[in-house]
Fold this protein.
Amino acid sequence: MSIIKGISDKIRGKRQGHKDKTQLNSLSEATVYEALKSVVDPDLHKDIVSLGFVKKVEINGSIVNVTVQLTTPACPVKEELKKQCEDSILKIRGVNEVNVTLTFPSSSRPAQAAEKKNNGLVQVKNIIAVASGKGGVGKSTTAMNLARSLARTSAKVGVIDADIYGPSIPTLSQAGKPTQMDGELVIPPEVDGIKLISVSMFSQGDKAHILRGPMAANLVKQFLSGVAWGELDYLLIDYPPGTGDIQLTISQIASLAGAVIVTTPQELALADVKKAISMFTTMKVPIIGIIENMSYFICDGCEKKHYIFKTGGGKKLAKNSGLPLLGEIPIEPYIVKASDEGLDFDSEGSKLPESYKQVTDRVVRELAILNSNQGLGLNSFSLAWK
């Protein structure tokens, strides 16, 4: 019996050794890549391997280290994708530990020929117009708070106040004047990690900016090409009302990744907003979607939504234009204090931070889809007169 037992033990030992070897052989870079094909980007509807997001796989015994490069640090599903990567790799036999590192590209937007001469924009990935065509809809407030919401995700953000005749960004941010130069480029001041520039930073007190259209457009051109923006994930441009020289100049100088349209619910605003949509369509600038501002008011204690400026205008406009409704921003008394004092919306009980977060997440996701479908941005400017 002892002889049989000894032979049996040897056979079992060989089989066990064969099993361990099989487990070891099943853990390879190819196996890891295959496992990661199960992780699908929810917006682009492709797996992260096909999208080229998986940049590096390292195997050290039973430990797997993976580097995944997403399109932006503001990606609203980055933690979800990271968790899916970890779970998919842990299913591989022989893996005991997974470390997933998320990185983001340093550059993702091809520059136009005009931009290549302008060092200020060469490291800016996405230039986004925040426009309305209509004054008084809270466009500047929306632009500034989109910037703040993006900055909270660790994205690098800048804002250009292109409303030469009625600049609001310095009040909304309490930004000071530029005090330094980088060669021939102006270094913009920063507030809450956001780089900002506005004509009011260079004016005296309450003096009006009395300029003809071409002169105003030239000022905006300097903001685009003469400012040391450095490496930015997003540069938001707060557009002035209307469809004139300034809007045309921006589209000629900068490769706009897309436009965010701001409206309020009532027909009086929608009439002008439709013209802004038409302008961007004519200039072949992709429209990311529509934000309805001042959608409703919630009074203290009742939690009931009061629709001061009618209801459903933004939703109707989005449907008729074939555009996404990015979100509805409520109106709150705290917005007055925050805007006048250049404060962030961090008041306890305020619904604004969550509203802007939801809108910002949608902007990021819609922009990622546009970039994927259109080769990461607009490469040329075209205007067709009819």
In short: The domain at 22-103 is CATH 3.30.300.130 (GMP Synthetase; Chain A, domain 3). The CA atoms of residues 184 and 272 lie 39 Å apart. The chain has a mean pLDDT of 82.
